[in-house]
Amino acid sequence: MSEWKPQSVVVYQRPDLPKATMIPGRDWDWEELASRASAANYVPVLSTDPLYMIYTSGTTGTPKAIVRDTGGYCVAMTWSLENAFNLKPGDTIFAASDIGWVVGHSYIVYGPLLHGLTSILYEGKPTTPDAGAYWRVISEHKVNCFFTAPTAFRTIKREDPEGKLLTPYDMSSLKSIWVAGEHADPNTIEWLQSLFPGVPIVDNAWQTETGWPITANPLGLEEHPIKPGSSCRPMSGYDLQVLREDGSKADAGELGNLAIKLPLPPGTLPTLFKNDDGYKKAYLTRFPGYYNTGDAGMIDHEGYVYFMTRTDDIINVSGVRLSTGAVEEILSEHPDVAECAVIGPNDQLRGQVPVGLIVLKSNTVKKPEVVIQEVVEAVRHRIGAVAYFRSCVVVPHLPKTRSGKVLRKTIKQIADGEEHTVPGTIDNPATLDTIKAALHTIGFPRPVKL
User: Fold this and answer.
1) What's the topology of domain 50-309?
2) Are 329 and 154 a contacting pair, CB within 8 Å?
3) How far is CA 132 from CA 7, 95, 168, 174, 203, in A?
4) Span 229-250, mean pLDDT?
5) Is the entire prediction scored with pTM above 0.90?
6) 318-441 maps to which CATH number?
7) DSSP label at 220?
């Protein structure tokens, strides 16, 4: 509970729900206030004045309160919508996100308002009433740019793997599809490419902290060839590099820590709310002179960036560093796998071992144990026996935040038998009980002394 109590609260009463109980003197009805409101002049502010505060999703621990400044953010929004998204005033953008998350702030509210776009606000799941819900919105409102999380597309693919529900709708207005929020596996990108031939599928990578894409395909400047699995190249202002553990620069194609050489570009966080020391400790201390993204990845010989996983998800199997994201890519390529997650619980002999959790597509006819055997063999063939991938379990759903990120850290804590706090941002807390039961069937948690 917050220590600070509001003096006034504006309440919007939904017409299809029972009216909320109002506290006289504190609560005010939106409709009543709006009916009495009159036009007001703009209030000038400094470019360095705070615009809003937003919390991170909390997948790796306690959510952090990000402060966003006004001037830099306005610059970043208008520049990115023009030069990265290739949108002009009058175009229509549909960002299927929650307004409370950073994508909602940036590309549902502030960005479209600044750039003169029509912005679509959508409430609901991607498969309600069916897996064609998003296609209906795009068709009815002549959407030019659609933006959502890979998780949403994986959910749609799970229910409608052949894209049959796309058939009734006119998609001719659509100029680009953008995916961000989690690692977009090549299988999902290629599935979208098969449904939307000729429409760029732009995998872009960024954070609540940055407020806009670190890497993307700059459609408004120069469209680059798409490499599934890569979020293309750094945007203007981001000097993104891959660093080894000792801070030295990694070679092309070498997995390491993704870090941005200071200074950061406009729009990124200047600090944490009332916590300058925490800001420095979390982002600027690990690699002096750099902003530490906390992500692991690589940059290939052509400058394409691959955000693979959080650095916490790089595991050590018998002395070999292994990216759980790389294992997830292999699992996701199986034709019967809709979604997956790989964690690295502790192991008495090997230090850590990869453990997979997979969600099957709705039309799967194979038995779960057959799919498990096939994905285990695929990892052994692609990575080798050194990965020691032997434990995998089928689950009905993965635990996620409301922004669509899988709670891998929490799953690992369950597998290790550790105390864990249910993040306040979780979409459905009941999924953790399902995960705990599923892990129990393959021997987790188990006593480990390291």
Assistant:
1) Rossmann fold (3.40.50)
2) no
3) 43, 16, 9, 15, 21
4) 96
5) no
6) 3.30.300.30
7) T
